[in-house]
Amino acid sequence: MSRLDSFIRRVTAQRDVLDHVCTLLAALPGPVIELGLGNGRTFHHLREKLPGRRIIAFDRKLGAHESSVPPGEDLVLGEINETAARFAGIGAALVHADIETNYPDIDAETARWLPPLAASLLREGGIVASGLALSHPELAVLELPAGVPHERYFLYLRK
Ligand SMILES: C[S@@+](CC[C@H](N)C(=O)[O-])C[C@H]1O[C@@H](n2cnc3c(N)ncnc32)[C@H](O)[C@@H]1O
User: pLDDT tier at 53 (50, 70, 90 boundaries)?
Assistant: First the structure.
């Protein structure tokens, strides 16, 4: 599969997963944590789907399109494993993690620190949507929406 086809499949799965999760969040209070603001496309999508919901976005540096920059108090720059740890206990309804690189060494390291971090950020019943598989005793696998291929995106419920 070409990298272009792979990219299209990834962002389609991402959009479908985020739309699905936004419906699940309707009755669940708490902020959204966006790990990997990047260009801001998924931030922009979440902001549109979840009007009024606080979204705190993290990245090592600001690279988002000007239409997709969060207000200063909701933009946290630096290494996520250090910056987001300061928000443990915030009671997030959703953690969206879009920080996989497809470099096995880096992703293996991320898969080590991301699961406990995500669990610490979420309220009970909160959801993680992640491009990387996560393994943690407080995170239960949630079914993906119909049509999203397994292993393309991962969903978990905070027990
Ligand atoms: C794939 S991009 C995110 C794309 C974004 N969700 C969008 O829709 O535009 C991943 C982003 O995560 C950031 N990132 C990855 N690992 C990180 C880390 N450990 N700490 C801080 N930022 C990280 C990168 O700088 C990059 O901007």
Answer: very high
